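Running co-folding for glutamic acid.
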Amino acid sequence: MADAPRYVGRFAPSPTGPLHFGSLLAAVASYLQAKHTGAAANVGAVANVGAVLRTAIAGTWHVRIEDLDPPREAPGSVASILSTLDRFGLHWDGEVTYQSRNHERYEAALERLQADGHAYRCACSRKEVADSSVLGLEGPVYPGTCRQGVADGKDGRAWRVRTTHTPIVFDDAVFGHIVQDLEALTGDFVVKRADGHWAYQLAVVVDDAADGITEVVRGADLLDSTTRQIHLQRLLGLPTPAYLHLPVAVDDDGKKLSKSTGAIPLDAGNEAIALWAVLAFLGQAPPPELRDAGALDTVWEWALENWDPGRLPAARTRGLIWYAHE
Ligand code: GLU
């Protein structure tokens, strides 16, 4: 093959527990985007190429472990996530990367934001922010207390990035046109926490650019993070990838499936059924015979042939009740 594949996707789990049905969704969808849609994009051709050709022209798919928050990490979960991916046939390209090894990159990004006057120190406690704010996208909007400098006698250990009222606009492949005014909806947001940990928003932007990611596929719980990420990309002079957000699997009470719950177990021996259920959840309408045959390879063959992102449901959440009644 003359050219390296242009499509680069990724799956970026936080190691807070083993992989479960909810996180498998993002792994499978990002993989299929790279290996099916990415293949077509790479040759500028129709999607229905044969399996052999598709493998040759497929996009690359990376796994990045987002281990920036040690207190939230569950011992053993990295090994468990990787072995589950492997067991499901979700084979990543290149080495697995770890955010915990990328601190220098994040430091350099923060230095650049500081040097350009985009970042400032903040001494506000969580409670102070909550007390003095209106509610925005994800809780209180930062009122800008430390924008002009930290008050005398206070210790500014967190870093925030300035936002503006200029709308940030992007087109999500599933949710369509999104327009957000960050100053109104989040206010200046944290890029380095007071406890010294890097904020997800900064780290993910720096790593997506460093890894050359061309499309981000992930759960819709992060749809509203995207404009903050695009804002940071612009301030840092980094490219903006395409975005595709997936419905989040919720339990009967409407709560996001946690690492340990889920109606569909990912146990050894259940891979074909679980993959089939992922495809059904993602609106792909896999034939029931495929589930009944119970062969993982056959489900993958079908998925690689028939994956259609146009069928993904544009809903932020989706319950699992439908599955029980299939
Ligand atoms: N680490 C995040 C999670 O496990 C995903 C981040 C992303 O895909 O941008 O929910």
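Result summary
Residues 21-43 form the longest helix (23 residues).
The radius of gyration is 21 Å.
Job closed.
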